[in-house]
Amino acid sequence: MNKCLNKIGLLVFSLLLIGLLAACNGDSDPQTNGVDNGANEEQDQGPTQKIGVQIYDATDSELIAFRRYYQDYIEDNYNVEFLFSDSLDTAEAERTSTENFINQGVAAIISFSDSDRMSVIQMTEDAGVYYAIGAGTLSDEQLDMLSDNEYFVGSIGPSLAEEEEVGYDMAKHYIEQGYTNFLLYAGGYPFVDMHLMRTHGMIRALEEVGVTYNAREDGQIGTFESDEYTINTVYGFPDDSGAFFGTVAERVNEPGLEVILTAGLGVEFFGTALAQSGQDIRMGTVASFEDAYYEGFSAGQVDYLAGKFSSSIGPIFAAVYNAINGDMEVVRNNGNPFRIDQGYWIATNVDEFNEMYEMSNSTENPAYTKELLDMVIKSENPDTDYDNFESFVQSYSFDEITNLQD
């Protein structure tokens, strides 16, 4: 009898000891505790969703900022992994990138490349992979062709009408200040649509104050006539000969030049010539709130910027996230893919720029925080719908987003 009691006592003591050791191990090593740890949270969320991102230039400062926002902020707050392409400067490279992403098992592709977009969209539809345009737009004809494509999510970016208005507002800003001697950089005019439309906006502002614009039959940038205004032009991109920067230097050093208006790539193409000229010349441009423009504003080279901010690509992620979660109704415009305009932040002095620059480049408190994006993500806000999403995207100005954060 005593032997039995002793055995029972020993068994109870052993069980208590095992329980205590298990509890201690659970506290010291969460990987072995099946109650509440990161591994189980990830299991609850399901497997990490892969999203491919196609970019036209891996060295572009704007795209570097976009990448930082996705990898350093979105990945930390959502169960996704972004795979980035190399620079895609040909249609073949874009198609190859698409094949690679599909083979890597991506659920969606967000594209900032447009070498062969319609073919790529067909490839993604065939593969059952969602596709969205991260910063751009489609023509009416293209959108109509894609109306029945259940895997094409939509596009967010400046419309061509918005691009023209950006050029118009920038030129008018300086005209109203009394400047009369201008250099217009038309970029890839007439082949790059956004450059063409921005330049047309500048031309319209000048025509309103009596300048005559003489268009050329071959479609290239024309000439200007005026008794009051002097307008020179330059267009194109650098080549191996170095002639482009020689022309830029000549134009910047024209006597009496007051303002440079560029359809893009302001500091990148004109910064050196401006610094070497030693003249007090203003510059307005369309670019982004990145380091090169921080330095440009600080040095007095730039005093007007229509710019994109790094987290402006937050809403297109929210749309894709809804799609891969099966909540397509949130991003369907009457059953069709969406096309929503999203313009630029405008800084007209160094103080405005610095305030916008700080928010644009923050990975702790970006313009589009998780709290804001969750407002239009169905899994986080069951009451959201397409009207909410569209309104959210269209409220993109610095003041509107600041108010939303408050």
UniProtKB/TrEMBL annotation:
Alphabetized UniProt keyword annotations: Signal
Keyword Signal belongs to the record: yes
Signal peptide interval: 1-22
InterPro entries: Peripla_BP_I
Keyword Repeat: no
Gene3D superfamilies in the cross-refs: 3.40.50.2300
Name recorded for this polypeptide: Sugar ABC transporter substrate-binding protein
Organism: Natronobacillus azotifigens
